[in-house]
Amino acid sequence: MDRIPTHPGAVLREDVLPALEMTVVKVAKSLGVSRQTLHKILAEKAPISPEMAVRLGKFCGNGPDVWLAMQANYDLALAKIELAEEVKRIPTAKAA
């Protein structure tokens, strides 16, 4: 694997919020979540849940699928790295 996909919180922090010229407080209020919840996502300490994806998809106008796909790609990349040695020991089943 060449690189870990970008956490969706980084996309929000680096691209979306600066482009909108909005504060975390204002975005959190618009999303209907606490400032702390949004801060955890922006700090890449919390994942984008399906519920948050729905909120972000409406807020950004790009739908929830984009946000869930980013989170899934990020999570999958981390899982592949974390489980790499264990997965090597798992045989691949073949149908008879």
Question: Which key phrases capture this entry?
Answer:
96 residues; mainly alpha; 434 Repressor (Amino-terminal Domain); 5 helices; 0% strand; elongated
Describe this protein's structure.
The protein has 96 residues and is mostly helical. The protein has a single domain (8-88), classed as lambda repressor-like DNA-binding domains (434 Repressor (Amino-terminal Domain)), CATH 1.10.260. It is built from five helices and no strands. Helix 2 (24-31) packs across helix 3 and helix 4 (50-60) crosses helix 5. It is elongated. The two termini are 32 Å apart.
What topology emerges from the helices and strands here?
Blueprint lengths: L7 H13 L3 H8 L3 H8 L7 H11 L3 H25 L8
Helix pairs in contact: 2-3, 4-5
User: Average pLDDT across residues?
Assistant: 96
Query: What is the name of the CATH architecture?
Result: Orthogonal Bundle
Report Rg: 17 Å
CATH homologous superfamily placement: lambda repressor-like DNA-binding domains
Quickly give the structural class.
Answer: mainly alpha
Ends distance: 32 Å
- In percent terms, what proportion of residues is strand? under 5%
Look at the structure and give the CATH class: Mainly Alpha
Shape category: elongated
CATH topology, anyone? 434 Repressor (Amino-terminal Domain)
Number of domains: 1
- The secondary-structure element order is HHHHH
Low-confidence stretches: none
DSSP helical segment count: 5
Number of strands: 0
For the biggest sheet, the summary is: none
Question: Approximately how much helix is present in the residues?
Answer: 55-70%
